Amino acid sequence: MANDGAQLWTLNQRLLSVVLDACSTELAELGLETKEFFVLAEVEASPYPAELAAALMIPKASVTVYVRNLVAKGFMRREIDDEDLRRHRLVLTAEGEAARDRALSALAAEFDRRLARISSRDRSELQRILLEMLKSPG
């Protein structure tokens, strides 16, 4: 198999999908859809809906739907931003933090099961490669 970008991208996407699918029961037990989980996981780093949409690369309208659902489930709340009273900041509730942490633990455990198939040296190399790929070009 050639190591071209499209094939590597496809393998990476397939791995992420397999891990998420393996955790779907745990996510469902927490009352989370997959995309809602991604919103929960990102909201502390990107607490404004527009930032969240950009970080997750999903439409703002979709973020609005996920946020509405997460607020209704008690995982998140909207607060008025003290620095700009026209803006709402998204904040996880204690229940939201617990759900996020349990979902992350389930995903990490499933990913760890797959990482256990490769040597410690290969895991270190994979981490080095991923960190290098995340660097901004230039």
Automatic annotation (TrEMBL):
One of its GO terms (molecular function) is DNA-binding transcription factor activity. SMART domains: HTH_MARR. It comes from the Bacteria. Gene3D superfamilies: Winged helix-like DNA-binding domain superfamily/Winged helix DNA-binding domain. InterPro entries: HTH_MarR-typ, MarR/SlyA-like, WH-like_DNA-bd_sf, WH_DNA-bd_sf. Residues 1-135 form the HTH marR-type domain. It holds the Pfam family MarR_2. One of its GO terms (biological process) is response to stress. SUPFAM superfamilies: Winged helix' DNA-binding domain. This is HTH marR-type domain-containing protein. It comes from Streptomyces aurantiacus.
